[in-house]
Write a structure and sequence with these properties.
The chain has 175 residues and is α+β, with helices and mostly antiparallel strands. The protein contains five helices and nine strands; from the N terminus they run E-E-E-H-H-E-H-H-E-E-E-E-E-H.
Amino acid sequence: MVFASRQDAPGRAGRASMHGGGPRMLEFTNKDITMQLTSEQQAESLIRATGARLTRPRTRVLMFLLDQGRPLTHHEIHEQLPGEALDTVTLYRVLEWLTEHGMVHRIAGADQVWRFSTSAGKTDHDHAHFQCTSCDSVTCFNDTPLPRRVKMPEGFTSQEVDFLIKGICPHCSNK
């Protein structure tokens, strides 16, 4: 089973734009069957695959993040989530649950604010993040190679490595 992001490209699978708007269509491939899934169908499928209960808040938040294509803060999600507002505690719990189940990953920005981005079905988050020092936007660099392993001093075992690059984004560079 393979999920590949698609956006505005009929008949062609590929990576969706990080800053593109609008709902994404996802291509599902299973041997000889290919079909397109909406972000809502993908969200429901991913949540069901965990064996946990499918709830409307989980589906809404995951579907929203799938459609964004960029990391967002809790506040941005709370402000922009369509439909009836979720209370902040419910949103925190949903984001934590989605993170624990590998559907979303957290990014710690230089400003010490968590941002959340979909994992697109990946359980490893071995990629760099870029934070603009002008506008504070954070972008996942999924195709930027990282060092294979950080050599740790004897007695230390790493569990997670965050790779954050700080600088100016293309949008702010053009101002």
